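Quarterly update from the structural biology core.
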Amino acid sequence: MLRTAFSGSSYVGVFARATDDCLLIRPDLDDDLLETLTDALEVPAIETTVGGSGTVGSLATGNENGLLVSSRVRDTERDRIAEVVDLPVVELPGRINAAGNVVLANDNGAYVHRDLPREGVQAVKDALDVPVERGDIAGVETVGTAAVATDKGVLAHPKATDAELDALEEVLNVPADIGTINYGGPLVGSGLVANENGYVAGQETTGPELGRIEDALGYI
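Predicted structure, tokenized:
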């Protein structure tokens, strides 16, 4: 477990994305913090932008089968990722292409923005090789900001309904629960980076919130 901020921001999930294979993260953090992050998540870090932007957590996601990134990704960024992990990097096409914001995924399934077009759904299937379902969470269409998923559990927006939690559990095949980050923030995906090994939360996240994270994502 780690509480921190990236360049003064507690919204760590905007700037980083973890899978069980790697950590995609903005390239301007100091070496000590980067080492601490890789120790907490037990994966190598890939310091990169996506489409020239440091909001890597919003623009990328992935699982054991591949990585899905915004169609704005550059060849140099692809090459940087390929130097660290041997996984396909697939672009999310169309207007709704901030992959980290609009796709919530683990190794079992993917839950995506309700309006993601057919070609986008197919790109998710191609990249992640899992079943895909459309939906929203507590009225939030950017499901990747409204929840965090690992292969052990899902932590979702505190106003997620029982029906939405049931849908998440069905497609992702893990238990789902509700919680907050950064002293009551409902968009848990924006303030939490997690994989099966550990997690990094925004520095304003409280003790009770950490307990909820650890319970929902199966660390205890």
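The chain has nine helices and 15 strands.
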